[in-house]
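User: I've been trying to design a sequence by hand for this structure and keep getting stuck. Would you show me what you'd pick, starting by listing the structure so we're on the same page?

Assistant: Good idea, let's start from the same input. This is the structure you sent:
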């Protein structure tokens, strides 16, 4: 079996994401032949893949969902209790996404494996897959642009360009129509937090939700070009008080009750918290996990509209 080069589909998270304007989505250029597709990946390498793989194993649930959106089917997936396509709930599991079971993967005799290249435990499998002569795609999925490009490649592999139109291009039209309605004379300031039962961190414009908020005309108070990214992600009550954002959005990981308890302990216990504009005006909002923790995929337009209604209720009624 021909080995397939690792593909990294990503848009730079440097200047473009922090520029304060939406970057147009450029579709990946795919050359289609009778039984293969060829395109240039994010590293500038030309990659050829065989069409219609029959035994696909996905090591990341969002990729599994995308594969089914593209009309594909899989024989194996990682353990997950949420966001699994209905048709894939009863297929074999091959460990967790942070600890995939290579022996189990090989037992399924896959002809294509979908890998998240940003997860170390998955990237570590690549040498073994190459040694075993097993085809794989090592993907990175950060934002809506990546969603568009991944669906383009997936639907070319499955031969379902109609699903690319429905789940990608039609979704993009809906998002564009939402962004067009954003008032140019308003720049609401926001603080985006991600909480778990163990910690609370600040999220930047180069994250999935952070980019959506930026495209909807907001200013993230955590971004400071003079600081390193890891320094910007540290929660500072002093900075929050100084900037006093118009909105505070919270993404929750794991158990919502445990996460809420942690946030109350680490943040809400500070007497100054109740004096913040967003808290006093009811703009301290916990975001629903199904749209804003997991990748929304075909629900991207719904996610954008949900945020737009929170930010501009007079316009998006």
């Amino acid at each position: 079996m021909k080995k397939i080069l690792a593909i990294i589909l990503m848009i730079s998270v440097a200047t473009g994401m922090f520029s304060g304007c939406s970057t147009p989505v450029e579709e990946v250029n795919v050359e289609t032949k009778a039984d293969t597709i060829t395109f240039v990946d994010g590293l500038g390498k030309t990659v050829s893949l065989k069409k219609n793989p029959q035994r696909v194993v996905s090591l990341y649930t969002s990729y599994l969902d995308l594969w089914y959106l593209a009309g594909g089917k899989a024989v194996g997936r990682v353990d997950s209790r949420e966001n699994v396509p209905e048709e894939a709930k009863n297929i074999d599991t091959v460990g967790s996404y942070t600890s995939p079971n290579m022996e189990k993967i090989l037992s399924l005799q896959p002809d294509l494996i979908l890998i998240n290249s940003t997860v170390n435990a998955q990237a570590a499998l690549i040498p073994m897959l190459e040694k075993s002569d097993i085809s794989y795609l090592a993907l990175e999925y950060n934002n809506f642009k990546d969603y568009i490009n991944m669906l383009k490649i997936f639907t070319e592999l499955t031969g379902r360009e109609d699903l690319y139109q429905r789940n990608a291009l039609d979704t993009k039209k809906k998002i564009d129509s939402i962004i067009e309605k954003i008032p140019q004379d308003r720049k609401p300031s926001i603080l985006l937090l991600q909480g778990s039962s163990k910690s609370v961190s600040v999220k930047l414009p180069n994250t999935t939700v952070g980019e959506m908020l930026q495209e909807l005309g907001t200013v993230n108070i955590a971004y400071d070009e003079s600081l390193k990214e890891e320094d910007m992600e540290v929660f500072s009550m002093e900075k929050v008080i100084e900037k006093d954002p118009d909105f505070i959005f919270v993404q929750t990981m794991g158990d919502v009750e445990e996460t809420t308890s942690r946030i109350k302990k680490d943040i809400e216990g500070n007497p100054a918290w109740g004096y913040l504009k967003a808290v006093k005006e009811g703009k301290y909002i916990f975001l629903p996990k199904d749209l804003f923790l997991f990748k929304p995929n075909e629900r991207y337009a719904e996610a954008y509209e949900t945020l737009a209604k929170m930010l501009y209720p007079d316009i998006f009624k």
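That's my pick for every position. To get oriented when you compare it with your attempt: The chain has 13 helices and 15 strands. The longest helix spans residues 161-180.
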